[in-house]
Amino acid sequence: MRKFLLALAATAAFAGPALAEPVRISVGSFNLNNLPFPVAVGLGLYEQEGLDVTVENFASGGSKTLQALVAGSTDIAVGFYDHTIQMQAQNKNVVAFVQLARNSGLVLAGGRSSTFDPDKPETIKGAKIGITAPGSSSDFFVRYYLQRHGLAADDVSLIGVGSGSAAVAALEQGKVDLLVNYDPAATFIEAKGVGTILIDGRSDDGAREIYGGIYPTSVLYATQSYIDAHPQTIQKVTNATVKALAWIKAHSAEEIVDKLPQQFISGDRDTYVKAVEKAKAIFSADGLFDAKDVETPLTVLRTFNEKVAAAKIDLSKTYTNKFVLDAPRAVAN
Hints:
Elements: H1 2-15, E1 21-27, H2 36-42, H3 45-48, E2 51-57, H4 62-71, E3 76-80, H5 82-89, E4 94-99, E5 107-111, E6 128-131, H6 137-148, E7 157-160, H7 164-172, E8 178-181, H8 185-192, E9 195-200, H9 204-211, E10 218-223, H10 224-229, H11 231-250, H12 253-258, H13 269-279, H14 295-304, H15 306-310, H16 322-325
Parallel strand pairs: 1-2, 1-3, 6-7, 6-8
Antiparallel strand pairs: 3-10, 4-10, 5-8, 5-9
Helix pairs in contact: 2-11, 6-14, 7-8, 8-13
């Protein structure tokens, strides 16, 4: 993966124009919720906008990316929308400006020896549950599930296992009893016979069952101060990303995978193509935020996050549609 990131950075630096504008973009993981970002990189769309993108991957989860953004060590983050709400509760202005995934895509999978039965929520007690990282949306998923069913956070053990093949390995090796993760991990689990999907949030119906509504996840976000200081940079990043979203919608899973560097493809290619096909439904078609949908993460966070519950949250300040509305609508070939 490190070689892949170096290759991405080198490609951006080599292919970009002499006066390309540098921008640092960090990504929490290369799960499929974030797929529009590497697709935009693979299609050369950021370079076409005159950007020299340096990519950093925090494979342990989105919370590390958020920390980097707030600390100023990255300019833009590919992370989850609910982090913007958390930051507002801490009086930090982090704003999402492109929606990549309009739905969670999370699944809860049980290993071969798991005794958890979703029809009997109390059977989750004592389970070791793998999540991408503490403070991540997979963490929120578990906590909200426990809260909804009258269970306490200490009824289970939460263990950070990352995403992708590392997460699948943790379930396969019995390091965790249950795993909350995204595609491609979800598809790999079924394809390898490692476990069974017990709760599936990849569809709109699944999201409504879990959260009570559509739960927007992967977005591009930045601090308000960076957006104010670099509006043209944000617009260029938005232009490229919106083109990537349109391109994904218009192309097959096979064609999408063809545009990705080989190092990005986890496991065998055929299974990865199947994972992309299953994940396509979660991607935004246009990058715009829906005022009703963003209420769902706030409802979830308020159930167990004391700072969010105590704060007066203004959701209109956690996202903006301005840059997407100003982006050209041409589809990349």
